[in-house]
Amino acid sequence: MLFRLLLREVQRVAADHSLILTLLLAPLVYVFFYGSIYQYKAEEEVPIAVVDEDRSGLSQTLITQIDNSQMVNVALRTTLEGAKESMYHGHIQGFLYIEKGMEQKVLSLRQANMVLAVNAARFLPSSEVAGAITQIGLTVGAGVRLQYLQKKGMNTEMSMQEVMPVNVDYRPMFNSRSDYGTFLLPGLIAMILQQTLLIGLAGGSAAERQRGSLAEWMQTAGGNASTALWGKGLFYFLLFCAYAYFFLTVNFRVLELQILGIGWELALITVIFLLSLIPMGIFTGLLFKSQLLATQLMVFSTYPIFLITGYSWPLSEMPPFVKAVSYLLPITPFLGLYQGIVQQGAHITDRLPDLYHLMALWCFYTAICLWKMRRLEKQNTPVHAV
């Protein structure tokens, strides 16, 4: 019975050009296209200007160190007004202002100031440039004071304690470079997997109503709604299991992403995730009598869904209504499990609430999908006069 439904779905997909594009072409095109955008993962050589009014050996050393860093490129040295004008025109992403007398203040152990103005309208350059220049400034300043104290007769150990009484050992875990691509790409790949599956399932299920083939679908399943559901979903399950394996091996290798957790645990949660999406997609499609309308809805919902999953912005900071909608999406608990295993090396047992949440949504969408199928079957069953 399931095999006949599988063959039936293969024939229907093969005869529908929109489904062929959605199911066979879109996942591969999307994952390689979007992945290539973030292939380099971190923004480098961000152009800035330097306004050096001190013109001392210390300021030259500081500028050289900044220019030699991988993150920042000193594009020009100019006046304060020239730096502002260049930033307004978009030629630079910020400027560093070094006050006059900085070296003299540092050597006399007084506090010296330098002003870093960054274009915060763009998030990544502002944060990366600020972090890099702050670190370089602290390092150069500490080096100058260390030399000063050594000339006063202090040994190296005592000078280091005086210069840096507290040494912060900063170690970013799981994403050693703290780059944006390593954070975003795994979640983006999971989102592509979900949305292409939902678009195909919703479009294919809506086409059953549009073409009046619901009765034939149920008849092929022997009148059993559960068999009809999983028989239709079997094709999509097998296809997207193959896509998931391809994404997590080939695409991860091409994009230089690592899976820090255990492979079989990742495979298990991916299977549960796909099983929860199948009834959700079929139920969504059965709400519409137009294949085009169902497909358009799923396409336009992609970005809003990604925004409310808690991956790009914490769920705790979202309005209650948005959080409630997010908890109804299988990708929300899946991303918690997936991110823990892929990016942090966690185990399923470390994220049991997310696992229970995902399995509950699987049961929920299966129940309402079967209810919707039985209801439509009754509506399409002719009433014979006695």
Automatic annotation (TrEMBL):
Q: Where in the cell is it found?
A: Cell membrane
Task: Kindly report the protein's main subcellular placement as a broad class.
Answer: membrane
The record's listing under Gene3D superfamilies reads: abc type-2 transporter like domain
Q: Which InterPro entries match?
A: ABC-2_transporter_component, ABC2_TM
Record keywords: Cell membrane, Membrane, Transmembrane, Transmembrane helix
Report whether Metal-binding shows up as a keyword of the record.
Answer: no
Q: How does the record classify its membrane topology?
A: Multi-pass membrane protein
Question: Does Protein biosynthesis show up as a keyword for this record?
Answer: no
Q: Which domain of life is it from?
A: Bacteria
| TM stretches of this protein | 20-38, 180-202, 234-254, 266-288, 294-313, 325-343, 355-371
Q: Where is the ABC-2 type transporter transmembrane domain?
A: 18-362
> Entry's PANTHER family?
ABC TRANSPORTER PERMEASE, MEMBRANE COMPONENT OF ABC TRANSPORTER YHHJ-RELATED
Name of protein:
ABC transporter permease
Recorded source organism is Chitinophaga pollutisoli
